[in-house]
């Protein structure tokens, strides 16, 4: 004991540590400590815990043997995802049209009221055609799918399925050089990329955390689901298909989008971990908590309040002023053309290379603050540029698109662009706050943007080359 | 009267936050730990006209500094020294959950062990002898269901007993193998002299043996920012300091 030096004050800690290291002499101490603790735990449990029926306990293991098996894991995951989409699309269809006709009906009265009051045309334009129409679209297009999708997803989460998804995905992430927990932060991204950036804190290694941050926006978030769902159901179901088959095709297309997102996530992780972020993945333990019967009503209420209403409020708050601005831009004329048309015309040549048009690119640029408003801005842009269509059903939204020269390729590329392009403003701010690095924050916008442009360009050129459009 | 502080520790997925929300209700706010990127919640509740400040520590499997979460939980228990550390365990997988409780008890005896999800365990046919566990651990053990509000009053009573000092715990000390115990015995006097009596010396010695540098960094920070407890006090308590 006397041979070990001991002093007072903070410097002493260092000498304490080196004294301890001399004593520890090797690396097996941790194992011994852990086995000491585990031994006592096991002893106490053997003494105090009794099991009436071991079989009951095994139900979780049995279920996990299937849900996380090498053969069935992925098919089950895809099937569940497919069913969730199917329920969402099938269920949202009617309420969406009802809401749209309701808002269209009210708009008639509003217009009549403005006429009766002899209100000037521009006021009617700003308030009814801009503000009211913009927000009512957001509500009728976004609310029903959200009211179904979020609760169903939350039920799945409460049941305990998401950790199994992470478990299944783990192998793939390890192979691509990332951390297994990236599967969890990715799942979080399906809800909200901005929140998922914060959730990457669970990954300790800075290298692996950066991979998770940079690739998070390749999974569609709350703000992008409505765009994907709407475009898929309007354009991807094929002309002749009706009813159940139509819904099924739409669900399959959405699932394809998710799969593309995951493939891009893995590929980008792989490339980065071989280049800018080189390293070997670290190990970790993933707990599979027992399956639990979800508290159905509570889950539905909470997810409706916390997710659906929040997303909708955010969309309306941003969409309302955006509606007014878009209307003004569309109705201020310079040299015979509206400002909006000038802007769209500016982006048009570039956009056509990507199989889209200038309005779409503009909507994505103006939609930087929140992905929720990309679609409303696009619709308002189209509407204010002359093609006046009464929006009283979802079908007429399709007419707006068609009258602006949309084909299935336009819809597909807009979906791909939405899936792959830069994350929203909030997410970018979070990335900067978390990484404290301007370089990586800029890269987290530039890499996805580059991929989005590359993929849409390739698809557009291929489709035109083979004469599919 | 200053409120008692109660820190909520537990593995992830044990219903720790459900219990926290149940007790604090709307009286809570979330924020970041000072200097740490770990989110935590703080709230208040009252029991027998006494105010309690509740702190929801991040859910962790251990206090061995494997992640920022574990460091935050560990630092709170060691440095803030809450009046009660409530360890929430999952009744359906007690054996794994007990590990965290044992680690907490190595740091502080001011603890209450709360076995949550007891109704789930009953459904699965798991019977738990609370007295036996309490006798071994040396601290109060209460079975509850936060979800169905079972056993909450009894839990609050036990928290009160430990907080007010009515219950003095004799927490279980884990006897490690000879090599570790010898190491601890050698380091203990030095640790006590260096960090003072206010921190759990045996546990710190154990962590030193494991080469826990993150704990060292936290201690260093702590000691730079405040005066070091007088080593003479250690002598008065009958512990030999050696030079």
From TrEMBL, chain A:
Q: Which UniProt keywords apply?
A: Membrane, Transmembrane, Transmembrane helix
Query: Sorted alphabetically, which PANTHER family does this protein's record hold?
Result: FERROUS IRON TRANSPORT PROTEIN B
Would the keyword Cell wall biogenesis/degradation be found if you checked this record's keyword annotation? no
Q: Looking at the UniProt record for this protein, which Gene Ontology cellular component terms does it annotate, in alphabetical order?
A: plasma membrane
The record lists the organism as Paenibacillus albidus
Q: Where are the transmembrane segments?
A: 71-91, 98-117, 137-162, 223-245, 252-272, 311-334, 346-367, 373-389, 401-422, 442-463
**Pfam families in the cross-refs:** FeoB_C, Gate
Q: Where is the Nucleoside transporter/FeoB GTPase Gate domain?
A: 141-232, 313-436
Tagged with keyword Transmembrane: yes
Q: Where is the Ferrous iron transport protein B C-terminal domain?
A: 254-302
Which Gene Ontology molecular-function terms are recorded?
ferrous iron transmembrane transporter activity
Q: This protein's superkingdom?
A: Bacteria
Q: InterPro entries of this UniProt entry? A: Fe2_transport_prot_B_C, FeoB_GTPase, Gate_dom
**Protein's recorded name:** Iron transporter FeoB
Automatic annotation (TrEMBL), chain B:
Classification via InterPro entries: FeoB_Cyto, FeoB_GTPase, G_FEOB_dom, P-loop_NTPase
Gene Ontology molecular function terms on file: ferrous iron transmembrane transporter activity; GTP binding
Domain of life, per the record?
Bacteria
Q: Which organism is it from?
A: Paenibacillus albidus
All residue ranges annotated as the FeoB-type G domain in the record: 3-165
* Matches recorded under Pfam families: FeoB_Cyto (PF17910), FeoB_N (PF02421)
An example of a Gene Ontology cellular component annotation for this protein is: plasma membrane
The protein depicted here goes by the name: Iron transporter FeoB
């Amino acid at each position: 004991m006397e041979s070990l030096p001991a002093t007072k004050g903070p410097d002493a800690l260092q000498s304490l540590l080196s004294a301890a290291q001399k004593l520890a002499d090797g690396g097996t101490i941790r194992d011994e400590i852990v086995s000491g603790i585990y031994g006592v735990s096991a002893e106490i449990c053997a003494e105090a815990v009794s099991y009436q029926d071991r079989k009951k306990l095994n139900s979780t293991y049995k279920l996990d043997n299937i849900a996380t098996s090498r053969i069935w894991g992925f098919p089950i995951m895809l099937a569940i995802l497919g069913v969730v989409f199917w329920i969402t699309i099938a269920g949202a269809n009617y309420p969406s049209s009802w809401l749209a006709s309701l808002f269209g009906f009210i708009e008639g009265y509003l217009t009549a009221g403005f006429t009766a009051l002899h209100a000037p045309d521009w006021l009617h334009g700003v308030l009814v055609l801009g503000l009211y129409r913009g927000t009512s679209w957001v509500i009728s297009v976004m609310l029903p799918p959200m009211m179904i999708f979020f609760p169903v997803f939350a039920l799945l989460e409460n049941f305990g399925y998401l950790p199994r998804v992470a478990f299944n995905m783990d192998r793939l992430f390890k192979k691509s050089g990332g951390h297994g927990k990236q599967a969890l932060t990715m799942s979080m991204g399906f809800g909200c990329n901005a929140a998922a950036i914060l959730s990457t804190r669970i990954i300790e290694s800075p290298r692996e955390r950066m991979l998770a941050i940079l690739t998070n926006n390749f999974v569609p978030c709350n703000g992008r689901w409505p765009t994907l769902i709407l475009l898929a159901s309007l354009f991807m179901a094929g002309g002749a298909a009706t009813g159940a088959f139509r819904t099924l095709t739409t669900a399959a297309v959405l699932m394809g989008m998710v799969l593309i997102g995951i493939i891009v996530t893995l590929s980008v992780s792989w490339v980065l971990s071989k280049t800018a972020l080189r390293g070997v993945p670290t190990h970790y333990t993933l707990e599979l908590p027992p399956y639990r019967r979800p508290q159905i009503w509570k889950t539905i209420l909470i997810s409706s309040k916390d997710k659906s209403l929040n997303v909708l409020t955010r969309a309306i708050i941003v969409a309302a002023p955006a509606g007014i601005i878009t209307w003004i831009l569309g109705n201020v004329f310079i040299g015979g053309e509206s400002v909006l048309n000038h802007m769209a015309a500016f982006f048009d040549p570039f956009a056509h290379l990507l199989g889209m048009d200038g309005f779409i690119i503009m909507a994505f640029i103006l939609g930087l603050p929140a992905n929720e408003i990309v679609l409303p801005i696009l619709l308002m842009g189209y509407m204010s540029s002359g093609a006046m269509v009464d929006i009283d059903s979802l079908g007429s939204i399709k007419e707006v698109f068609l009258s602006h020269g949309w084909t299935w390729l336009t819809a597909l590329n807009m979906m791909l662009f939405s899936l792959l392009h830069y994350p929203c403003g909030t997410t970018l701010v979070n990335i900067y706050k978390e990484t404290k690095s301007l370089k990586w924050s800029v890269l987290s916008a530039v890499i996805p943007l580059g991929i989005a442009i590359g993929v849409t360009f390739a698809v557009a050129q291929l489709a035109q080359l083979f004469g599919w459009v | 009267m200053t409120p008692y502080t109660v820190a909520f520790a537990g593995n992830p997925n044990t219903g720790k936050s459900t219990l926290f929300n149940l007790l604090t209700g709307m009286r809570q706010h979330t924020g970041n730990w000072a200097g740490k990127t770990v989110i935590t919640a703080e709230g208040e509740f009252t029991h027998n006209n006494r105010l309690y400040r509740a702190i929801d520590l991040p859910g962790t499997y251990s206090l061995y500094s494997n992640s920022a979460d574990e460091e935050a939980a560990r630092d709170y228990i060691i440095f803030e020294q809450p009046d009660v550390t409530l360890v929430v365990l999952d009744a359906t997988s007690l054996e794994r959950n007990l590990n965290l409780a044992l680690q907490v008890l190595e740091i502080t005896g001011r603890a209450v062990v709360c076995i949550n999800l007891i109704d789930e365990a009953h459904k699965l046919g798991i019977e738990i002898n609370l007295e036996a566990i309490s006798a071994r651990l040396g601290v109060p053990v209460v079975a509850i269901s936060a979800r169905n509000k079972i056993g909450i009053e009894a839990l609050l009573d036990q928290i009160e007993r430990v907080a007010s000092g009515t219950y003095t715990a004799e927490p279980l000390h884990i006897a490690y193998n000879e090599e570790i115990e010898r190491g601890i015995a050698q380091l203990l006097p030095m640790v006590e002299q260096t960090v003072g009596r206010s921190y759990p010396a045996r546990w710190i010695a154990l962590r030193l043996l494991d080469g826990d540098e993150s704990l060292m960094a936290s201690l260093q920070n702590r000691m730079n920012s405040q005066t070091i407890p007088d080593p003479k006090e250690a002598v008065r308590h009958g512990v030999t300091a050696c030079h």
